[in-house]
Amino acid sequence: MSLTVIRPALVLTSALALASCATTAPQSAAAPPSLDDLARDYLAVQLAIGEKDPGYVDAYYGPAELKAKAEAEDAGMTLPMLQARVVALDATLAAIETVPGSEDAGRVRYLRAILSAAKVRLRMLRGETIPFQDEAEGLFGVRPEMIDLTTLDPVIEEIDALVPGEGPLNLRLNAYRDKFVIPAEKLRPVIDAAVAECKARTLAHIALPEGERFDLSLVTDKPWGGFNYYQGDYHSVIEINTDLPTRLDRAVDVGCHEAYPGHHVYSTLIERDRVNGMGQIEFTLLPLYSPRAIVSEGSAEYGVKMAFPGDDQMTFERDVLAPLAGIDASEIEDYYALRKATSDLGDAYYTIAAGYLDQTMTREEVIEALMKYQLASRERAEGSLGFLDTYRSYVVNYGMGYDLVGDYVDQAGEGETPASRAARWERFTGILANPTLPSDLIVEE
Ligand SMILES: [Zn+2]
After folding, report:
1. 185 C-alpha vs ligand 1 centroid, how far in Å?
2. Taking CA 382 as the corner, what is the angle to CA 380 and CA 384, rounded to the nearest 5 degrees?
């Protein structure tokens, strides 16, 4: 997949450094604000936006008084006032003098990238309609490519030949896949076993702080498939939505994504290294609509490949999870061949999502396109519209994040030797433990 990544504005430190060498004394004797003060201002304004936009703050475990203040002041706060606060804070950050490549320069760069996304989100909250691609670019720092859906017709034909039976392909495919649905009474033990394996495989490569933990529950009636509510103190509350039948491969997918080495590990490493290690308070708030999401969702999605390289996921499901679930896994190789073939359809999703959100397609046309080019059942197609209604262009973070993180990590070493695996894990961990923006992941060809 080709993509365009927005490079964040360079912090122009040289001109400022020159100015500070001038012989004339500065007009104001007031000390410039410290980065720690500005990080608090950043938290305050982000929390204030979160009061207007439920879900905007994905998680917050910083000072409680900042949250209480945002709540108390909310009634008197308007969206234009918030926009002005964001613009002013960004201007202050832009004027800060930092040494290129220094820790401070990195903090300023990261904060400004998040504030840039906040400006776009505030425009949306004020009622502006932003086209899908521009919205994704503004919020997440990546521009999804639109494709002509009919170019996927040959892929659909190939998949058609792989799926037995007669009738519409999406129905045949889903009927075939549903042979691998985990019986409801086995769901919990299967997911627990999957998460335990994801954890063991992750801990073999990443040292996590003592006391890190998660609570996991199965829920229904949500617009998402799974959610990690990071609590701070190395603790995640994970919910997995079981509205739709859960297939065997989803147990590992969701275990890696939400927990190890996905969201739980990402938030834990950032808290340990950035918040506790360096006192960088800005990282106690996880902004949902920001370029952070590309790394968060990308590492969570690619985390499956990290923990289960090669055929490991298939063999683990065949040998461990299928017996636990009471599922006949004799055809699991065919199941995985189909999983691989359908992954080539991923690019179509953004085009369809754009059609839906930009209203260039009717709801029924969108459902038809999802059934034809994502091979979804009508039920799953309709279900995915709920996610788009709620999170809009956030969908780009999964596939584009996977590609960006995957290409970046794989550059450390291909193949399955212990050395190349170790090199990939080191790169992967580096993305998680340091503030990483989409532009950092661009692989130079
Ligand atoms: Zn996620």
Report:
1. 25
2. 70
